[in-house]
Write the structure tokens for this entry.
Amino acid sequence: MRQAYETASALRGWVLGTLKLATLVSQAGPANIQSRSLAQRLRAMLAPEAAKPDRDDLVYRHRP
């Protein structure tokens, strides 16, 4: 899990810092505890208003 965090953290920093995007989203199925945990460790917040392809998915919004 540590490698996933380091990789996601670097990508998040690049997207939000270098590309200057206002936000970034992660999607995870309700049963995907590892992805949900990773998003939370990256300080992403649940975004129930975000569009999602599967209505049961959870969307996490990352901000700078």
About this structure: Helices lie at 2-18, 33-41. The mean pLDDT is 94.
